[in-house]
Amino acid sequence: MNTARSNAFYAQSGGVTAVINASAAGVIETARRHPDRIGTVYAGKNGIIGALTEELIDTGEESADTIAALRSTPAGAFGSCRYKLKSLEKNRREYERLIEVFKAHGIGYFFYNGGGDSADTCFKVSQLSQSLGYPLQAIHVPKTIDNDLPLTDCCPGFGSVAKYVAVSVLEASLDVRSMAATSTRVFVLEVMGRHAGWIAAAGGLVESQGIPVVVLFPEIEFDKDRFLARVDALVKQHGYCSVVVSEGCHHPDGSFLAEQGTRDAFGHAQLGGAAPVVAQMVKDALGHKFHWAVADYLQRAARHIASATDVQQAYALGQRAVELALEGRNAVMPTIERISDAPYRWRIGSAPLEQVANVEKTMPREFINADGFGITDACRRYLLPLIEGEDYPGYQGGLPVYATLRNQLVARKLPSFELA
Amino acid sequence: MNTARSNAFYAQSGGVTAVINASAAGVIETARRHPDRIGTVYAGKNGIIGALTEELIDTGEESADTIAALRSTPAGAFGSCRYKLKSLEKNRREYERLIEVFKAHGIGYFFYNGGGDSADTCFKVSQLSQSLGYPLQAIHVPKTIDNDLPLTDCCPGFGSVAKYVAVSVLEASLDVRSMAATSTRVFVLEVMGRHAGWIAAAGGLVESQGIPVVVLFPEIEFDKDRFLARVDALVKQHGYCSVVVSEGCHHPDGSFLAEQGTRDAFGHAQLGGAAPVVAQMVKDALGHKFHWAVADYLQRAARHIASATDVQQAYALGQRAVELALEGRNAVMPTIERISDAPYRWRIGSAPLEQVANVEKTMPREFINADGFGITDACRRYLLPLIEGEDYPGYQGGLPVYATLRNQLVARKLPSFELA
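Structure tokens for the assembled complex are given below, as produced in the milestone run.
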């Protein structure tokens, strides 16, 4: 435990979200309230890479207003990266470099804001600091739109994507319903979630609004005949239907729906995603006119329709991470513990990083209904509180006002370092 | 001019929008304020088809609250259709059927809410009613996300799509900027607009937020080498860039970018749109990792991020249509006349339908910058007021509350009719 005053390092890791900056605001604002214990919060430029290359952003240069504005700014304000440190055995020099940089800049607190991989890195860094005798408290701040971290009821970033998907499917479905008499009858939306169907499940929420919807999960092997029969039945009953397909939806042999094996004139693999494949399948078998959309980054960046619950939790977890550090904790991650569904009540707990790293939480089977094409009431009870509430950014001239940081780097103190 | 009290017919036509129901609210609420002149407003079930098949929705059965809620409900609440009446010469019986149905139900006002094709139909109906000696006032209420109607400064539906596109490109671009050090460097968003680049132009608005963006318009023939050079320059300068490609972007020979001529194993044409084609082109030539999205219906149904200006104008045009009818006008369309850009001031004018029908307004060349990949200041001045202001729907349980109508049909009085 750091009893003397020391600096902190904060880094964003992996795919960014609509609310990861809210966690950053939680970390920085809380640290600023404890100037006796925490000096400057340095943020890694482009995540952990910034620590390795000693590109440290001095967040002390940012005004209180700017840091507060992070709460309503999507994406990674300091830059993030997809950079997984190898195992300690294979690349010990990178871990040692981190400790060197931390030592050079008087950093005693390491806040790592990411998913499962970064929880693992965070854990390893904490272990190494112990074995090297350098006092460092490593706290992981959970973040992933995939909602696949264990030991926390949900993950910041997910609630906002879920809200975006539910709202988008509702709106597009009303559109299709309007046009179905003479035009489009089936609308297909492709959403993220390579391994876990949490995001796709959010599309299933519109069923309670009377919208006929088929959800294709990565957890359920795709069965073309049963899928087409389901679409056929829904279109016969309602005149139209929507399909929400996870990018991770796959055939029994493990190949993704998006992999059609087709090539263009230059030998490139087919460019489209799962949505056009599913749409064409419906057209060929049932003859319905279709439209399809691929939300891609739009879904995870959509701060304009963020869930208020999600924003609140993202901030609270950043805040709690600092408090845990000040309480002397190490190698832990603050978590969301659900107390009740309705009214929704939650509190913050914590989990040892050892148990978080590299465990992936997919949808429990009891959240997917019997036919595999929709969600159960239990799933609905789980999801609804997570999309509850709106937390709109400010607007000027028709566009959201998102924070722009100075992102000023502190002077280097060490020789340069080549990334592996 | 109808001096006695008569009923009105209202129909939604073509692709629906986030605000066409606001026009419906404007028509119905205004009609209800004139019970001495206007009896019941009947809405066509699925647009003009409902008039032909005598499926008339009695909007008098809907409460004042429900009609008011239409203002914040996307898509077509009564159903729309893609059904173009043939020329009078080729299919006179359909026009005559319309008059018969109108006569049978005491309809003296015809409000048609659509784009260029429906303006043409509306005009023909007004002409026929004159030649048949049946007093009918036909007023067209403009609507099209494509913003391609002449004689009006803008078209309801467009401002909201423009806002959706500008906000989405801004958010996704911040995402890419966060990730560009190690991952995605180019993000491509495909937007609607087969013939006119108005929607794509809205993506160009984010340039003033410091976002490097390339816009591909249908008005500018695609030049692969120049496009790649532009992307290359932007990525070298900024580390990343976004591309907004109109679905109507095409090669000099007229073929769309989306038409790759590739076939899958079953001989189907390539399924993807323009976005994956453009993204792959960048990857092949410049090696950048990419992501792409296709917004499709999400963009035109996105009532959750509608432009307040757009909602206000959509309502006002519906309202004015009824007032024009009460003033004895026929074969006209209320229009938006811009008085000034900043502060934005506008008023409602009107245009004769004869001049509206079948004229398509594409982007003026002076709205596209010299290199053809972005918008000019003049375009920015034109667009900004149209995305100004937020007009959020109400929410319950995390989802927008959109109106659900009873849509009760009135009893038929005529023999059934077979559509052509």
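The domain at 158-301 of chain B is CATH 3.40.50.460 (Rossmann fold). The radius of gyration of chain B is 23 Å. Further analysis is deferred to the final report.
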